[in-house]
Amino acid sequence: MNKLLTWALVIAGIGGGYVLLSNIPREPQRVEGVLIPDLTAQAALGEAVFQGTCAACHGVKLEGTDSGPPLVLPVYRPAMHADFAFTLAIQNGVVAHHWGFGNMPPQEAIAAEDISRIIAYVREVQRANGVK
């Protein structure tokens, strides 16, 4: 897919929720008390990849760090950030648009087959924490 078209789709998807996004704190924050449920096999594989690559910025339990936002915030629910948005973020990186962490670089070390596993992990943890 053409990179310009990819970015246009990302911007269009994000732009549609701008009003909601404008209410999100721009300073780094962490979510306390994140519950990790019993995971499906797919999500457990995703957890292993997440811990090795994503947790440094997004936290071991998706709670966020000083380097990246928590992924258990309502803004990251499927209706706001569809699975495709996570795929694009992993593959292409993300320009900072509603957080104070700076840009997220592409995660080139993550194999294509592991992306759906990571997404399964994130979604299962989100659901266990009321993010639907």
Please summarize what this structure is.
The protein has about 130 residues and is mostly helical. The chain has a single domain, classed as Cytochrome Bc1 Complex, Chain D, domain 2 (Orthogonal Bundle), CATH 1.10.760.
Average of per-residue pLDDT values: 87
Report the major sheet: none
| Total separate domains | 1
Find the CATH topology: Cytochrome Bc1 Complex, Chain D, domain 2
**Helix proportion:** 40-55%
Morphology = globular
Please tell me how large the radius of gyration is.
14 Å
Proportion of β residues? Answer: under 5%
CATH class: Mainly Alpha
Q: Superfamily at the CATH H level? A: Cytochrome c-like domain
Number of strands: 0
The number of helical segments is 6
> Which stretches are poorly predicted, pLDDT < 50 over at least 5 residues?
18-25
Instruction: Name the structural class.
Output: mainly alpha
Per CATH, the architecture is Orthogonal Bundle
Order of helices and strands: HHHHHH
Structure description:
The protein is mostly helical and about 130 residues long. It has a single domain, classed as Cytochrome Bc1 Complex, Chain D, domain 2, CATH 1.10.760.10. It has six helices and no strands. It has helices spanning about 5-15, 20, 40-55, 55-60, 85-90, 110-130. Helix 3 packs across helix 6. The longest helix is centred in the C-terminal third of the chain and has 17 residues, at about 110-130. The radius of gyration is 14 Å and the shape is globular. About 25% of the residues are buried.
